[in-house]
Amino acid sequence: MKFTDSHIYYEILILFAIISIAEAFTGLYKSEKWSRNEWYINFAGLFLSSTITRPLSFLLSAYVLNYFFADYYNVFENVPLWAGVLITALLEDFTQYWWHRAAHTYPWLWKGHRVHHSAPEMSVFLTGRNSWIYLLLFPSRIVSTILIFLGFGQAFLIGYFFKALIGISAHSSVRWDEPLYKIKWLHPLMWVLERTISTPATHHAHHAATDADGIGVINGNYGNMFFIWDMLFGTAKITRQFSEHIGLEDYHEEPWYVQLGYPLFKSKDERSELFE
Fold it and tell me: Per the UniProt record, which residue ranges are transmembrane (predicted)?
């Protein structure tokens, strides 16, 4: 199956639109925190992620695979679909966990990921906020191409849709999990769920401006689809609470092209992390 034969992006776009409309009904986008520059970042980031860096990464990876490893094309196409979905979802998300964790560990990579955390509030638009260098080097995209090349195309697309569903809803300002924690008979299910996948409570904590409130965990809760990685590698923090302050404590709102284009563009503000 060819990657371009799927309508997966249309399905994800519809999902994105539905959740963003739900956010609009809550009054999120009327907040004064959303300056014109922040909206430039949101839309330019989505365009950069979906229209430029993702296709470019796929085409380059596919060229290398077809040139050097042509004999392995579709070698796993007969693997049962359920097994393929599990394999591709776990491998792709596992790669992203470590890339995300590295972005909070190494200063040079953090500067490429920083724009993802500069947003003043949680929103579905955060899913596209990353710099060109962070996105272009994104190893999970290379892993995705390899999996499709090896014959996991259909399985990957199914898994990727559920990853998009979980990732978008975890970044959304719509706290769908909050009322569920209060339903007593759901307690066992929610206990398992919040340790398996990312939820608004666990991922909002990762986007908190500080961890001094006992809720935020700036260097933790890295999982995008699966939260099990955080549980396994000691980076999990579960409070079922939501921090009042989202974003960066020391944020000077650099121009959109600096945040998305660093290091090609650098801030003129000496206080900024993107100054040099």
Answer: 12-29, 41-69, 132-162
